[in-house]
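pipeline/complex-builder :: batch 7 item 3
reading input block
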Amino acid sequence: MAELRKRGLVTAVICSTPFMKLGATQARTFGTPDLALIEIPHPLGGLDLESVKGRAGVAVPQIVAMMKKLLE
Amino acid sequence: MTNLAELLKVPGASIEAEDDFDAVNALVNQRGWGDGLPVVPPTASRVAAMLAFCDRAADEPVAKVAPRYGEATPLRLAANAVMAGCRPEYFPLYLLAIEAMCEEPMNLYGVQATTHPCAPLVIVNGPVAAELGINCGHNAFGPGAHANATIGRAIRLALLNIGGATPGLADMATMGAPSKYSYVVAENETASPWEPLHVERGVPAGASAVTVIGAECPHNVNDHESISAEGILTTIAGTMAITGANDVFYVGAQPVVVMGPEHAKTVASGGMSKADVKRFLRDHAHLPLGKFSKENIERRFRVAFEDSYADAGPDTPVYAFQRAEDLLIVVVGGAGKHSAYIPTFGATRAVTRALKLRDGSYARSVKDFKR
């Protein structure tokens, strides 16, 4: 994702809450500290389909907000 | 060699501390530099002694250690080796193991950051193992041997302090494993009826090497009754056939079978080569699809492995690993009717590296590195 970001593509990484710090650290490590991180509740694995849709419902507004910000 | 005293003047390269064991350890704990155990203070003189067994410049980049991709240099590695309690003569093998595990196929990033409880397993072959006293016999995976304990600990400290694998921040192992403290063993080559692992993997006999892979802890295989190759291998295959191992889901997985010398002797006396053993275990280490949970069948096997399991019935075999040639077999241990199965992270491949001097020649002894 960092590589895609460096190439100028609109890029985001979805992390469940316990992985947000790892995501932020890795974004800095790979030279893209501004890489957007989309936070969703943990876990993502072991969910039924409705719960997965619920996670998407949390992620999508953040993605939209991120893209709007880019257009400003 | 770059002057050590000059290197230590570089901002951040060293730190002033009270000349007191407890004070240094308090500082290490405060900075989060350790593994929780007391460390040997890495004074300049101890680091210099460690570097006496290194044929490279102290500030030469050796590898980038994931997930931080911190630069491992002999100087940084030496500091961690001192902290771990290593003797200076261990340094060449320690550096070699770090280089090997930072090679792309090992996938150190995944091994370090995953929720899975894996750690780089280091298997040492060749004359250097005996020279350094690396235990390959009784209790080889356990405590008691200084070289196993401290080289493995030095690796962990490098993974923490250079690689940045801080638990809960970058090492996301759900519960981790005791092998994350130290995980170094030598193959018991003299008790093995087969060619040693490094020779099988292309290193000349007489040379020394390390083989690394991201692995779980060993699971015992107890068989006191079988007196035939088929009997021993049937018990091992049965132990390998489990529902919760990552290797089931990765085509290139390379799980490890550690054979106790007595089991190995029984198997080999039946005329089986290592390749024969691998084929037997590939063909017999399986369990029926119906042993997996309904959700794993519907959501994983039928989707990710559609070609084999889209319509498969509950009796369809699921293999512990996919390709016979991928299985790693080593002989370790002393007397007793035990072997072990070591599942892996799955998304990791074994890397073997020979111990070589700067000029590319094979080292016959760690003394070859002495300045």
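note: Chain A has a mean pLDDT of 94.
queue -> next item
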